[in-house]
Amino acid sequence: MVKMSTKSRYGTRLVLDMARHYGQGPVQLADIARRQQVSVKYLEQLVIPLKLAGLIESVRGVKGGYLLTMEPRLITVGRVVDVLERGQNLVPCTDDPEKCRRAPFCATRCVWVDVERAIRDTLDSYTYQDLLEMEDTLMGGKGEDHVQPDRDGSFYESEERGSA
Amino acid sequence: MVKMSTKSRYGTRLVLDMARHYGQGPVQLADIARRQQVSVKYLEQLVIPLKLAGLIESVRGVKGGYLLTMEPRLITVGRVVDVLERGQNLVPCTDDPEKCRRAPFCATRCVWVDVERAIRDTLDSYTYQDLLEMEDTLMGGKGEDHVQPDRDGSFYESEERGSA
DNA sequence: TTAATCCCTAGTAATTTACTATAGTATAGA
DNA sequence: TCTATACTATAGTAAATTACTAGGGATTAA
C-alpha cells in the first residue's frame, strides 16, 4: 500500500522518549539511541528539523541534550511526522492541482486527497500524552525506561533492511 | 508523509478506464495506454496481478483485450490497491507483531495500525461506480473518453521523475 | 584543560521505483 | 493457412530514494 519511512517512525519514538523525560532536564541523544536502539548519527539528523520547527530545543556542552519546548499533551504525532516529512505528499497532485493537467476532472485525485486527509486526521488524533498513557497501559507498570534491549544486542525492527 | 506508488495510481486509473467501458466487450491495453497516457508495457505489468486476483479477465488474439469480471459498483479502490501492493504494509510490524520485539509494549505501533486502518477504510469507501459518477460530475458531460492529451504529447503527471 | 555534548556537511551502499526490451503464444479474420 | 493484432512471460536497468555512516567542528560544565 503506502509505506511510512523510518525517519517518521524513529522520529516519533525519539520524541516519545523525550516526552517520557519531560520536565527532567535535557536528554542526551546517546541515551535515547541506547533506549530506542537507533544510532546517534541517525538521531542527529532527525533532531535538526524538529529543532527548526520549534518542537524541541538543545543545550550544548557537557550535561547538555535536548528537551521538548512544550508539554506532551500539546504535541501530536501528526505534527512530528509533518515536520520530518516536510513537503512529501501522498501523491504529487494532492497539494497542487497544477502539477497534473488531469487534476480538474480526475476522480482518482479526489480519492487520494481523501486518503491523505484520513492519514493526517488519524495522526493528529494522538498526542504524546496519549502515547505515554498507552505505553503505561501496555507495560502494566509505572513506565520509566522500562524497555531494555536483549543481551545479544539484536533488537527492535532489526529486519528493516533484510526481509521484503 | 507517506507516498503512494504509480503502480497503485496508474492501476486505479486502468481499472477506472475499464469500468468506463464495462459491458462493451474487451478493452485493449493500447487504447487504455493512449487514454491514460501510460505505456502499454507498464500497463501489462499491472494487469497480471489484477487478473490473478480475478478482478479482470483477458481475451487473447485479435479484438482481444481485458474486461472487468464484475460490475464497477462491486469493486472498491481499496481492493485494487490491495492487489497491486500485495504484502506491503505501512510499517513492517503492523501485520505481524513478531517482526519487532518492541511490538507488545509499543505505543507507536498502535498509531501505525490505526493509520493503516484509516487508509484502508477510506480506500474501501470508494467503488468504481462512485468514481464513474464523480468523473461525470467533474466533466459536466455524459462522460465517454472525454479526456484527450495535448497535441505536444506532454501530459498528466509528467513531472513524476523530475521534481521533488 | 578536558571530556561530553550538540552541530554541520558530506558521502554512500542497498533498495525500490518506474519503467523498457525481447521473445514469445493465441486467435480473428482475410 | 497466413498474418496482423492482441495478450503473456521473463528479464533487465537507469534513476531516485532510503537509511544510514563518517569525520570533523563548536560549545560548555567541571
TrEMBL record, chains A, B:
GO terms for cellular component: cytosol. One of its GO terms (molecular function) is DNA-binding transcription factor activity. It comes from the Bacteria. The keyword DNA-binding applies. SUPFAM superfamilies: Winged helix' DNA-binding domain (SSF46785). Residues 142-164 have a biased composition (Basic and acidic residues). The keyword DNA-binding applies. Pfam families: Rrf2. InterPro entries: TR_Rrf2-type_CS, Tscrpt_reg_Rrf2, WH-like_DNA-bd_sf, WH_DNA-bd_sf. Residues 140-164 are annotated as: Disordered. Keywords: DNA-binding. PANTHER family: HTH-TYPE TRANSCRIPTIONAL REGULATOR ISCR, WINGED HELIX-TURN-HELIX TRANSCRIPTIONAL REGULATOR, RRF2 FAMILY. This is Transcriptional regulator, BadM/Rrf2 family.
